[in-house]
Amino acid sequence: MNYEKDSLLIRDYINGNESALEILIDKYKSRIYSFIFSKVMEKDVTEDIFQDTFIKVILTLKGGGYNEEGKFLPWVMRIAHNLTIDYFRSNKKMPTVRESSGSSDDEYNIFDFLGNSDECSETKIIKNQIDQDLRYLVTQLPDDQREVLELRIFKELSFKEIAEETGVSINTALGRMRYAIINLRKVIENNNIILTVD
Fold first, then answer.
1. CA-based angle 5:60:144, to the nearest 5?
2. Are 14 and 62 in contact (CB under 8 A)?
3. Is the pTM of the predicted complex or chain greater than 0.85?
4. Whole-Å CA distances, 1 to 6, 37, 71
5. Which domains are delineated in the chain?
6. What's the DSSP call for residue 153?
7. Which of 26-30, 39-43, 114-118 has the lowest mean pLDDT?
């Protein structure tokens, strides 16, 4: 594995070269996809987890949260592993109504701002405000991208369910989600918005 080349591609992507991430995804997608599929044994679930893995990768890289230079694949595999665990955990629980997406252990949290139920009132107020801000930012997206992102993040539908609800193919739904995340990140960066509570 050429870790040095990976680090250069990551740097290029962080500096605005979107195609650099495509190269990294193409380089490792079969290994990551196969790993996920070997655990869940369902194509639709595998595609959802695979997509969510790279959504988190995109947000972490663009948010400056990646600090494992030279170890891109192990880092992405760990994200995929954690999301797979989250999938199994969520399937063992009764469904609950939540305002936003996030796992109980906060390991997978696409916008890294949701926490557990015993946090202090002040933190809850701040996070509620962030949630409102995020929902407003989502309204700035083109309609087709906004719809897919809302269905995935706020309603927690699978990409198969999104495709069925919106009348498009799964690949189209995945593509719209990807562009929604890219455009949302640009809106956040352009407005110097921070969506994190420490």
1. 110
2. yes
3. no
4. 9, 22, 10
5. 1-93 (1.10.1740.10), 101-198 (1.10.10.10)
6. I
7. 114-118
- Report pLDDT for 33: 92
Asked if residues 7 and 1 have their Cβ atoms less than 8 Å apart, the reply is no
Within a 10 A sphere around the Cβ of 90, how many other Cβ atoms?
14
- The token pair at 57 is 């990768």
The residue type at 139: T
Neighbours of 152 (CB within 10 A): 26
196, with CB counted inside 10 A (0-12, 13-18, 19+), is exposed
pLDDT tens string 150-195: 888 777 788 888 988 899 988 888 888 888 888 877 777 766 555 5
Residues composing the chain: 198
For residue 70, which amino acid is it?
Answer: G
* Whole-number percent of the chain with pLDDT over 90: 8
